[in-house]
Amino acid sequence: MPVPSYIVSCTKNLLIAQDIYEFRFAKPKECNFKTGQFVLFDVPLVENSADIQTRALSIASTPSEDELIFVAKMKEGGRASRWIMELLKVESTVRMQGPFGNFTLDEKTPKDYLFIATSTGVAPFRSQIIDALKRGDRRRMDLVYGVRSQEDLFWDQELIALTQTYDNFFLHLALSNPTNDWKGHRGRVQTLMPQIIHDFSRKSVYVCGSPEMTKELKQLCLEQWTITKTDLHVEGYI
Fold this sequence. Notes:
The chain has about 240 residues and is of the alpha/beta class. It has helices at about 80-85, 125-135, 155-165, 190-195, 210-225, and strands spanning about 5-15, 20-25, 40-45, 50-60, 65-75, 95-100, 110-120, 140-145, 170-175, 185, 205-210, 230-235. The protein is about 20% helix and about 35% strand.
């Protein structure tokens, strides 16, 4: 069965943190996906619109939201970064294929969810957490979300608001290079995990971030924290 493709129209494109853009598209009525999946965008070269390559981005919105939400960290000179900063405007259209991927929640597990993300790796977890909470999932959900500095944080206010609405959702913000007035966790998420989570045996673990971070965390989960392979779900991005 062929993968669906859509022409979608941009409804928002905004710098929301240091080098982080959030951009949204009107969701086609026939577009269905599971939380944690991703799509491929046709990304043109700025100098030549006929030169197209695809780029993968996790869907950060829930299936019930009217828009498709994405975030991306800008890389100097990068094809997708230049497209987002220079070409993508409100009402711009782009071809999108998908959804793809199996980084989806195991809803049958009796265990609590533990989400570990750095930077834009939080995108699929926004979708998964909000959707699960609104569907009435009562298991404990912990999100450990790390970035470098306060300027790199985004969506933190929305996530904090969720902790105030749902008593089974817990947010742990961590900065690896904080200022003196930072009140949250200090350090890399890899080193902080044993301070935050005291019993890994009760967790179904989801990790998303850079390949270096996900590789290190995968090793820690399997070798030190005795998390089974069936309880570990990892997605790295480039």
